[in-house]
Each structure stands twice: as C-alpha cells, then as structure tokens.
Backbone:
C-alpha cells in the first residue's frame, strides 16, 4: 500500500485521465465563452474527499463557485497580459513541469518493487544501522541571551528545580512541560547539543550555555538507553515510504543518465 499522499495523487490523476476522455464535453459553467469542464470539478471533489471531506451538493456548489471566480481572475490577468511577464512565465513553467513529473511518477508507481521481500530487506538494513543506537531523554531551558542562560545554570547549582526554571524562564514551548523533550535519537538532536549531551552523566546539567539558532540552551540529561528497533509490522508504512522513495530516485536517475544535459 502506498502512502496517503501518493494514493491521493494517483487517484486524482487517474480520475483526470478518465474524465478527459468521458466528460470533457460537459461544462459545469461557461465564463465569457470559456467552458469549465466537469472533469475539473470532479478532480477537485476527489481531492477533497481523499483529504477527509464529504462529497455533498454544498461542497460541489462551493467548488464550482471557486472555479468560476478563478476563471474570471485568470481571464482578467490575461487581458492585462500578466501571463507574459517573465516571472509569471517562469512560475507557470515550473508548475507545469511539476505536474507532468508527478503524473509520470504516479503512472510509474505500480511498477515499483514494493514486495514483501524488498520491504524486509530494507527493514534489515535499517535495523543493522540502528543496532548500536542509543536514545537520550533530555530537558532544556532556552533563553534569549547568554547571561540569562548562565543565570539558569547558577540557579540549578543553587538548588532550584530545573522543571520550575523551564516553566518560568524558557522561551521554548517545551517550557510548559518543564522543558522535557522526551526520548530522542542522536540524529534528532542539534549536533551542537548532541556533542555536549554524549559527555553528560544522567541527571547532570551543562556547565555552560550552548548557542543555537533557537537561543541559548541549558541541557539536562534525564536518561539514556539502547534504542529498541520497532517490529517489522509496526514499521511497515515507514518502510513502504522508504522503499518507494528509493525506487523513485532510481527511476529518476535512470532518466537523468539517459538525457543529454548541457550546463
């Protein structure tokens, strides 16, 4: 099974192809002589339903109103020759190429190898990579200035509770949870922080503030444990996504290699 976004894309594209062949001659509205095909409305309805909406007369009426408004705006833009502006031409070209690329991938997707054997091979590859991985349970206090962070470190040394300081001083949303960030793997932690965390003992706090894009951080290591690799079944959707991405990249690379590219 493919992920939801891909299924949505495939369903919409499949409907578009079908609609063009069966309903293109049935306009839902005509704006200044330009017909808005039923296939376009059906595409929008399908997209809304795939994202959790319901196919109702009210939804169709709202979408039809939006299509008419967009057509009116597009016609006025062309009247003002906005479609001839270089930046607009460039954006239209990008959007067209993106749609064509997505359509090609959707058409190619059924040929991708997402077999059980391929998924299990990917699972083993990832499990082997994570064999020695560890997780770190950390809390932090983030401040706007280095001086404020140093004041937090001093307060901790003087006996004030770290979680209380996080609630009172931290600019991070985690402050409401006492600064807790939960369990994280090394690759989920800012390298500047991780390089310090690996040298902390459980329960200890950084002796100096650490500068990050989010602000000056004071870190406490609450715990450390060996990462437990989830079961194949629990990982299946992530494996499908990973194998699909790999198959897509391989397909794209094959086309790139066959193309004559001059730079």
Residues:
């Amino acid at each position: 099974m493919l992920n939801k976004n891909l299924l949505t894309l495939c369903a919409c594209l499949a409907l578009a192809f079908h609609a063009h062949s069966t309903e293109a001659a049935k306009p839902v509205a005509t704006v200044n002589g330009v017909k808005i095909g039923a296939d376009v409305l059906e595409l929008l309805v399908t997209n809304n339903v795939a994202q959790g909406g319901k196919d109702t007369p009210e939804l169709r009426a709202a979408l039809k109103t939006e299509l008419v408004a967009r057509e009116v705006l597009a016609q006025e833009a062309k009247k003002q020759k906005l479609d001839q502006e270089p930046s607009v031409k460039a954006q239209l070209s990008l959007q067209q190429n993106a749609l064509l690329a997505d359509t090609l991938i959707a058409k190619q997707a059924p040929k991708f190898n997402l077999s059980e054997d391929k998924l299990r091979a990917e699972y083993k590859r990832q499990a082997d990579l994570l064999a020695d991985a560890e997780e770190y349970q950390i809390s932090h206090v983030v401040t706007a200035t280095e001086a404020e962070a140093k004041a937090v470190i001093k307060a901790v040394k003087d006996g004030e509770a770290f979680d209380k300081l996080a609630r009172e001083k931290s600019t991070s949303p985690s402050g409401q949870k006492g600064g807790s960030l939960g369990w994280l793997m090394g690759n989920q932690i800012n390298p500047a922080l991780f390089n310090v965390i690996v040298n902390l003992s459980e329960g200890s706090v950084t002796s100096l503030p650490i500068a990050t894009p989010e602000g000056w951080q004071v870190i406490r290591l609450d715990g450390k444990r060996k990462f437990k690799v989830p079961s194949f079944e629990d990982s299946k959707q992530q494996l499908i996504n990973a194998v699909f991405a790999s198959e897509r990249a391989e397909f794209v690379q094959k086309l790139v290699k066959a193309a004559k590219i001059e730079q």
About this structure: The chain has three domains: 4-109, 116-127+230-258, 132-226. DSSP finds nine helices and six strands in the chain.
